[in-house]
Amino acid sequence: MNGPPVDTHSFGFVAACAIFLGTYVFIVSERVNRAVIAMLGAGLVIILGVLTQEQAIRAVDFNTLGLLAGMMMIVGVARKSGLFGYIAIRAAQLVKASPAGILMALTLVTAVFSAFLDNVTTVLLIVPVTFIICGELKVSPYPFLVTEIFAGNIGGTATLIGDPPNILIGSAAHLPFNAFVVNLAPVVAVILVLQMIANHFIWGIRLAAAPEEKARVMRLKSAEMIIDRWLLWCSLIVIGAVMVAFVFARQLHLEAATIALTGAAVMMLCETLPHHHHRHPELVTGAFHEVEWITLFFFVGLFVVVGGVEHAGLLRLAGRELIALTGGNKAVTAYGILWSSAIFSAVVDNIPFVATMIPLMKDMAPALGGPAAMEPLWWSLALGACLGGNGTLVGASANLTVAGLAEKNGLRFSFVKFTLAALPLMLASVAVAQVYLMWRYF
């Protein structure tokens, strides 16, 4: 196989692994803010020479940061129109203000949206609605937010554009949009239904709202939630255009960050136009205050720490060991890729892992029958990487985005509490994926 050997005794390898492990331990302990820990870890990666500053900068995924910042501003400005309040009331009334019904409805909406939008974008749109609904019914938003994380990562698995690992795989293996839908959407639909059933028995049956709260919600006039009709129409047009641009991003040759930040600029322009220019700095400052800077800087630090581990060769070494263990058997290799991708994606960002696995899998192609014979293995990688993101709070960008929004609204997201609930459900979903792979391809 191609690629240089990994020197596991070198200072760089040991230092990168120690920093990664230490960063992860402190994040799990939750004794210090995770953004502070991640940034300290990133600083050590550079100071100890694991990465140069230029390499550290290249390790940061600025497309993800731009996407997050842009969508946070779009959602923040759109919220002032009353749009999300209107959606919240209508959604609650359609299911007769039943908390369990709302849990299922928001799970389904999140999954469907995530199949056609980036799942980070989806949760940025859904989470504000969730807080409004839960505030009206006086129920804890925590179960709703957790199930939306699950739904976002599950739904994003179904299509080429739903999750960044799929974009990497599609580009490397020259797999079109339709191939992802045909091969992944069926098992994703099954997993989503099973997840919704599990959600109901874990959280839904225990959710309850007082009759008077339900009656009050049913009496609400959703139209009265609209505060600014000009901003409402601007929000609908801009959000709609941004969604369409995401769907056709490849044809437009645009990155998600460009689309989101341009949309944010247009939203800020729409908000400021009706007002006197003396108010413009205040309004623009308010839009920038909607950005979760703690979350963004956590991502910056985490990208550098994971980049150090990747540069040192840990991920490459793990991939080689996996391939050696399978002995060239395609089915065993596929299952190994599925489970290792899920486990690694639960503890490190799935993007660097997938980026490392792609060249290793290409090296395997001749021994396994050529590129055409590799297709089931690409689906194994996609299912493992995307579903594995549900395993822990740091498994996917959407998870941390929801946690950041929750903390801004006064709801603490515990790493341990989330993992205890999420990890068994993630493992069950991967088991379903393995049964599907066995039935359809092997």
Layout: helices, strands, pairs:
Layout: H1 11-29, H2 34-47, H3 53-59, H4 62-79, H5 83-94, H6 99-116, H7 119-137, H8 142-156, H9 164-173, H10 177-202, H11 211-219, H12 229-247, H13 249-252, H14 256-272, H15 280-289, H16 293-312, H17 314-326, H18 330-347, H19 350-364, H20 375-388, H21 397-408, H22 415-441
Description:
With about 450 residues, the chain is mainly α. The chain folds into 2 domains: about 10-60 and about 295-440; about 65-165 and about 175-290, no CATH class. It is built from 22 helices and no strands. It has helices at about 10-30, 35-45, 55-60, 60-80, 85-95, 100-115, 120-135, 140-155, 165-175, 175-200, 210-220, 230-245, 250, 255-270, 280-290, 295-310, 315-325, 330-345, 350-365, 375-390, 395-410, 415-440. Helix 2 (about 35-45) runs parallel beside helix 16 (about 295-310), helix 9 packs parallel to helix 19 (about 350-365) and helix 10 packs across helix 22. It is globular and about 65 Å long.
